[in-house]
Design a protein that fits this description.
Elements lengths: L1 E3 L11 E8 L8 E7 L2 E11 L2 E9 L1 H8 L4 E12 L2 E8 L7 E5 L4 H6 L6 E4 L4 H4 L8 H10 L12
Length: about 170
């Protein structure tokens, strides 16, 4: 995962989807129960810790009414706009956080294997890699704001450049 230094100029040409996540626990443990809306798809998710660097998501598909009812029980929630951005042979998911975190943007690239990860050359508009500290940065996500996130990154010696998606 990476922060961004700037938004690619052709961002509006790529598919976007709104994501809403409601955590049903105030813990940031790896084992977690949550509800998620991705566009017009709704899910109840049990995330389980398997081992270092490995989690499993058990997903139950639900309808919009069920989602809204469960979301009312969430102890914290956050929303983001995800843009699916192609990077050579990879798909980059750029998340533009909304509401209290508006301005916080991060990108994730999924790699097939460690060799792909090691040979990946990030584009100029990528900023600092935050993969190893992402879990700590997102502690309490849904209850923190942009100032909190900026402070968390600053404590790690990383500058957050607020960026905004024009809609």
């Amino acid at each position: 995962m990476y922060l961004l230094k700037q938004i690619p100029p052709d961002i509006a040409q790529h598919k976007q989807i709104k994501i809403i996540v409601g955590d049903l626990s105030d813990s940031n443990d790896f084992d977690l129960l949550k509800v998620r809306q991705k566009g017009d798809h709704y899910e109840l998710i049990k995330k389980e810790f398997i081992g270092p660097g490995e989690t499993k998501e058990n997903v139950i598909h639900i309808n919009e009414t069920e989602f809204n009812n469960i979301l009312r029980s969430a102890v914290r929630r956050h929303a983001k706009i995800r843009v699916f951005y192609p990077l050579d042979k990879y798909l980059c998911e750029i998340d533009f956080y909304q509401d209290e975190l508006n301005g916080y943007v991060r990108a994730e690239v999924e790699f097939e294997n460690n060799e792909d990860y090691q040979s990946f050359v990030a584009p100029d508009w990528f900023g600092q890699e935050i993969s190893k500290i992402n879990h700590d940065l997102h502690e309490g996500l849904g209850t923190i704001n942009l100032v909190d996130m900026t402070d968390r990154l600053k404590q790690k010696g990383i500058e957050l450049i607020p960026l905004f998606l024009d809609n």
